[in-house]
Protein backbone atom coordinates (compact mmCIF):
# COMPACT_ATOMS: atom_id res chain seq x y z
CA UNK A 1 0.00 0.00 0.00
CA UNK A 2 1.30 3.45 -0.93
CA UNK A 3 -0.03 6.43 0.97
CA UNK A 4 0.67 10.14 0.74
CA UNK A 5 -0.50 12.78 3.18
CA UNK A 6 -0.58 16.47 2.36
CA UNK A 7 -0.90 19.45 4.67
CA UNK A 8 -1.76 22.64 2.77
CA UNK A 9 -2.10 26.21 3.91
CA UNK A 10 -3.87 28.38 1.39
CA UNK A 11 -2.55 31.68 0.06
CA UNK A 12 -4.49 34.86 -0.60
CA UNK A 13 -3.36 37.56 -3.02
CA UNK A 14 -4.17 41.21 -2.28
CA UNK A 15 -2.81 44.16 -4.26
CA UNK A 16 -0.07 42.00 -5.73
CA UNK A 17 1.03 40.68 -2.32
CA UNK A 18 0.67 36.99 -1.54
CA UNK A 19 -0.24 36.32 2.08
CA UNK A 20 -0.51 33.04 3.94
CA UNK A 21 -3.79 32.49 5.77
CA UNK A 22 -2.89 31.30 9.28
CA UNK A 23 -5.92 29.11 9.87
CA UNK A 24 -7.31 27.91 6.53
CA UNK A 25 -5.66 24.54 5.99
CA UNK A 26 -6.35 21.20 4.40
CA UNK A 27 -5.17 17.69 5.20
CA UNK A 28 -5.57 15.13 2.43
CA UNK A 29 -4.71 11.43 2.46
CA UNK A 30 -4.20 9.75 -0.92
CA UNK A 31 -3.96 5.96 -1.32
CA UNK A 32 -2.64 4.48 -4.59
CA UNK A 33 -4.46 1.55 -6.14
CA UNK A 34 -2.33 -1.56 -6.64
CA UNK A 35 -4.55 -2.75 -9.51
CA UNK A 36 -5.13 0.49 -11.40
CA UNK A 37 -3.24 3.72 -12.03
CA UNK A 38 -5.62 5.64 -9.79
CA UNK A 39 -5.66 7.02 -6.27
CA UNK A 40 -8.42 7.43 -3.72
CA UNK A 41 -8.48 10.65 -1.74
CA UNK A 42 -9.74 11.49 1.73
CA UNK A 43 -9.78 15.26 2.37
CA UNK A 44 -10.07 16.85 5.80
CA UNK A 45 -10.71 20.60 5.91
CA UNK A 46 -9.03 22.29 8.87
CA UNK A 47 -11.57 25.10 9.18
CA UNK A 48 -10.95 28.10 11.45
CA UNK A 49 -14.51 28.24 12.79
CA UNK A 50 -15.04 27.42 16.47
CA UNK A 51 -17.69 24.77 15.74
CA UNK A 52 -15.50 22.74 13.36
CA UNK A 53 -14.82 19.25 14.76
CA UNK A 54 -11.05 18.86 14.91
CA UNK A 55 -11.59 15.26 15.91
CA UNK A 56 -13.14 13.11 13.21
CA UNK A 57 -13.52 9.91 11.24
CA UNK A 58 -14.02 9.08 7.55
CA UNK A 59 -14.19 5.92 5.45
CA UNK A 60 -13.31 5.38 1.80
CA UNK A 61 -12.63 2.41 -0.45
CA UNK A 62 -9.59 1.32 -2.46
CA UNK A 63 -9.60 -1.84 -4.61
CA UNK A 64 -12.66 -3.11 -2.76
CA UNK A 65 -11.03 -2.66 0.65
CA UNK A 66 -12.53 -0.24 3.15
CA UNK A 67 -10.10 2.18 4.76
CA UNK A 68 -10.81 4.22 7.86
CA UNK A 69 -9.18 7.56 8.64
CA UNK A 70 -9.17 8.87 12.22
CA UNK A 71 -7.76 12.19 13.38
CA UNK A 72 -7.57 14.35 16.48
CA UNK A 73 -6.10 17.82 16.04
CA UNK A 74 -7.88 19.52 18.94
CA UNK A 75 -4.64 20.20 20.82
CA UNK A 76 -2.29 20.20 17.83
CA UNK A 77 0.64 22.59 17.97
CA UNK A 78 2.03 24.28 14.86
CA UNK A 79 5.47 25.86 14.43
CA UNK A 80 5.35 28.01 11.31
CA UNK A 81 4.25 25.15 9.06
CA UNK A 82 0.87 23.80 7.91
CA UNK A 83 1.97 20.43 9.29
CA UNK A 84 1.29 19.93 13.02
CA UNK A 85 4.41 19.49 15.14
CA UNK A 86 3.01 17.94 18.34
CA UNK A 87 -0.05 16.80 20.33
CA UNK A 88 -2.02 15.18 17.50
CA UNK A 89 -2.57 11.97 15.58
CA UNK A 90 -3.80 10.91 12.15
CA UNK A 91 -4.37 7.17 11.71
CA UNK A 92 -5.27 5.09 8.66
CA UNK A 93 -6.78 1.66 9.35
CA UNK A 94 -7.16 -1.29 6.96
CA UNK A 95 -8.37 -4.78 7.95
CA UNK A 96 -8.19 -3.81 11.64
CA UNK A 97 -4.53 -2.79 11.31
CA UNK A 98 -3.14 0.73 11.67
CA UNK A 99 -1.20 0.91 8.40
CA UNK A 100 -0.19 4.57 8.84
CA UNK A 101 0.09 6.57 12.05
CA UNK A 102 1.23 10.19 12.15
CA UNK A 103 1.78 12.33 15.21
CA UNK A 104 2.95 11.75 18.76
CA UNK A 105 -0.33 10.63 20.38
CA UNK A 106 0.04 7.00 19.39
CA UNK A 107 -1.58 5.50 22.51
CA UNK A 108 -4.70 7.60 21.99
CA UNK A 109 -4.84 6.57 18.34
CA UNK A 110 -4.65 2.84 19.09
CA UNK A 111 -7.24 3.18 21.86
CA UNK A 112 -9.67 4.99 19.61
CA UNK A 113 -9.26 2.85 16.50
CA UNK A 114 -9.24 -0.43 18.46
CA UNK A 115 -6.84 -1.69 15.80
CA UNK A 116 -3.47 -3.40 16.06
CA UNK A 117 -0.14 -2.08 14.74
CA UNK A 118 0.71 -3.22 11.22
CA UNK A 119 3.18 -6.09 10.83
CA UNK A 120 5.17 -3.96 8.36
CA UNK A 121 6.06 -0.41 9.38
CA UNK A 122 5.28 2.38 6.95
CA UNK A 123 8.42 3.96 5.48
CA UNK A 124 8.62 7.60 4.42
CA UNK A 125 9.98 7.87 0.89
CA UNK A 126 9.84 11.61 0.38
CA UNK A 127 8.61 14.89 1.73
CA UNK A 128 7.61 17.83 -0.45
CA UNK A 129 7.38 21.39 0.81
CA UNK A 130 6.41 24.62 -0.94
CA UNK A 131 7.92 27.78 0.57
CA UNK A 132 7.48 31.43 -0.42
CA UNK A 133 9.92 34.29 0.04
CA UNK A 134 11.95 37.05 -1.56
CA UNK A 135 15.51 35.95 -0.86
CA UNK A 136 15.44 33.29 1.85
CA UNK A 137 13.68 29.91 2.02
CA UNK A 138 13.85 27.59 5.00
CA UNK A 139 12.53 24.22 6.12
CA UNK A 140 13.36 21.42 8.55
CA UNK A 141 13.84 17.74 7.80
CA UNK A 142 15.38 14.52 9.06
CA UNK A 143 17.73 12.69 6.71
CA UNK A 144 17.60 9.70 9.04
CA UNK A 145 14.68 8.90 11.37
CA UNK A 146 17.18 7.82 14.03
CA UNK A 147 18.92 11.21 14.04
CA UNK A 148 17.97 14.78 14.83
CA UNK A 149 16.10 17.19 12.61
CA UNK A 150 18.14 19.65 10.53
CA UNK A 151 17.43 23.26 9.58
CA UNK A 152 17.85 23.90 5.84
CA UNK A 153 18.11 27.44 4.47
CA UNK A 154 18.45 28.53 0.84
CA UNK A 155 19.44 32.17 0.29
CA UNK A 156 19.84 33.98 -2.99
CA UNK A 157 20.80 37.29 -4.52
CA UNK A 158 19.38 37.50 -8.04
CA UNK A 159 18.82 41.24 -8.48
CA UNK A 160 21.10 44.25 -8.52
CA UNK A 161 24.36 45.09 -10.30
CA UNK A 162 26.30 42.05 -9.05
CA UNK A 163 26.20 38.60 -10.60
CA UNK A 164 23.51 36.38 -9.02
CA UNK A 165 24.61 34.06 -6.22
CA UNK A 166 23.08 31.34 -4.07
CA UNK A 167 23.91 29.83 -0.68
CA UNK A 168 22.61 26.57 0.81
CA UNK A 169 23.10 26.17 4.56
CA UNK A 170 22.33 23.28 6.89
CA UNK A 171 22.28 23.94 10.62
CA UNK A 172 23.76 27.40 10.10
CA UNK A 173 26.77 26.23 8.08
CA UNK A 174 27.08 27.25 4.42
CA UNK A 175 27.78 24.01 2.58
CA UNK A 176 27.16 25.19 -0.98
CA UNK A 177 27.96 28.61 -2.46
CA UNK A 178 27.18 29.12 -6.15
CA UNK A 179 28.58 32.19 -7.90
CA UNK A 180 27.58 33.22 -11.44
CA UNK A 181 24.20 31.60 -10.91
CA UNK A 182 23.07 32.74 -14.36
CA UNK A 183 25.37 30.05 -15.80
CA UNK A 184 25.01 27.48 -13.02
CA UNK A 185 21.24 27.55 -12.42
CA UNK A 186 21.15 23.73 -12.60
CA UNK A 187 23.59 21.49 -10.79
CA UNK A 188 24.35 19.17 -7.92
CA UNK A 189 26.89 18.70 -5.15
CA UNK A 190 27.52 16.12 -2.44
CA UNK A 191 27.91 17.36 1.14
CA UNK A 192 28.43 15.87 4.59
CA UNK A 193 25.83 16.45 7.34
CA UNK A 194 26.64 14.90 10.74
CA UNK A 195 28.98 12.42 9.01
CA UNK A 196 26.18 11.47 6.62
CA UNK A 197 26.47 11.91 2.86
CA UNK A 198 23.70 14.02 1.32
CA UNK A 199 23.27 14.74 -2.38
CA UNK A 200 21.91 18.20 -3.19
CA UNK A 201 20.35 19.00 -6.59
CA UNK A 202 18.98 22.36 -7.72
CA UNK A 203 17.20 23.93 -10.67
CA UNK A 204 16.55 27.67 -10.31
CA UNK A 205 16.13 28.56 -13.98
CA UNK A 206 12.72 30.08 -13.20
CA UNK A 207 14.23 32.50 -10.68
CA UNK A 208 16.36 34.09 -13.36
CA UNK A 209 14.36 33.81 -16.57
CA UNK A 210 10.65 33.72 -15.57
CA UNK A 211 8.30 36.32 -14.14
CA UNK A 212 8.45 36.53 -10.31
CA UNK A 213 6.02 34.14 -8.66
CA UNK A 214 5.16 32.34 -11.90
CA UNK A 215 7.30 29.27 -11.18
CA UNK A 216 9.53 27.76 -8.53
CA UNK A 217 13.13 26.84 -7.92
CA UNK A 218 13.46 23.14 -7.15
CA UNK A 219 15.87 21.69 -4.57
CA UNK A 220 16.28 17.99 -3.84
CA UNK A 221 18.10 16.66 -0.78
CA UNK A 222 18.81 12.95 -1.01
CA UNK A 223 20.80 11.10 1.69
CA UNK A 224 23.22 8.43 0.57
CA UNK A 225 26.23 8.00 -1.68
CA UNK A 226 25.56 8.70 -5.40
CA UNK A 227 27.05 5.30 -6.29
CA UNK A 228 24.49 3.56 -4.07
CA UNK A 229 21.45 4.82 -6.02
CA UNK A 230 19.38 2.16 -7.72
CA UNK A 231 17.19 2.35 -10.82
CA UNK A 232 14.18 1.18 -8.85
CA UNK A 233 14.06 4.18 -6.53
CA UNK A 234 10.52 5.57 -6.23
CA UNK A 235 11.69 8.99 -5.10
CA UNK A 236 10.95 10.41 -8.56
CA UNK A 237 7.26 10.33 -7.59
CA UNK A 238 7.90 13.54 -5.74
CA UNK A 239 8.72 15.47 -8.89
CA UNK A 240 5.43 17.39 -8.79
CA UNK A 241 4.30 20.42 -6.81
CA UNK A 242 0.72 19.99 -5.64
CA UNK A 243 -0.08 22.92 -3.35
CA UNK A 244 1.34 25.45 -0.97
CA UNK A 245 2.09 23.02 1.80
CA UNK A 246 3.78 19.81 2.84
CA UNK A 247 3.27 16.41 1.28
CA UNK A 248 4.75 13.10 2.42
CA UNK A 249 4.72 9.76 0.66
CA UNK A 250 4.76 6.45 2.53
CA UNK A 251 4.78 2.79 1.54
CA UNK A 252 4.10 -0.38 3.52
CA UNK A 253 5.68 -2.55 0.84
CA UNK A 254 8.90 -4.40 1.57
CA UNK A 255 12.00 -2.61 0.34
CA UNK A 256 15.69 -3.07 0.90
CA UNK A 257 17.43 -1.21 3.71
CA UNK A 258 19.17 0.87 1.05
CA UNK A 259 15.96 2.78 0.28
CA UNK A 260 16.49 6.40 1.30
CA UNK A 261 14.33 9.37 2.21
CA UNK A 262 14.24 12.32 -0.20
CA UNK A 263 13.25 15.97 0.42
CA UNK A 264 11.79 18.07 -2.41
CA UNK A 265 11.80 21.80 -1.69
CA UNK A 266 9.83 24.08 -4.03
CA UNK A 267 10.98 27.68 -3.51
CA UNK A 268 8.67 30.34 -4.95
CA UNK A 269 10.17 33.84 -5.29
CA UNK A 270 7.79 36.69 -4.46
CA UNK A 271 8.74 40.28 -5.21
UniProtKB/TrEMBL annotation:
It holds the Pfam family DUF868. This is DUF868 family protein. It comes from Sesamum calycinum. The lineage of its organism: Eukaryota, Viridiplantae, Streptophyta, Embryophyta, Tracheophyta.
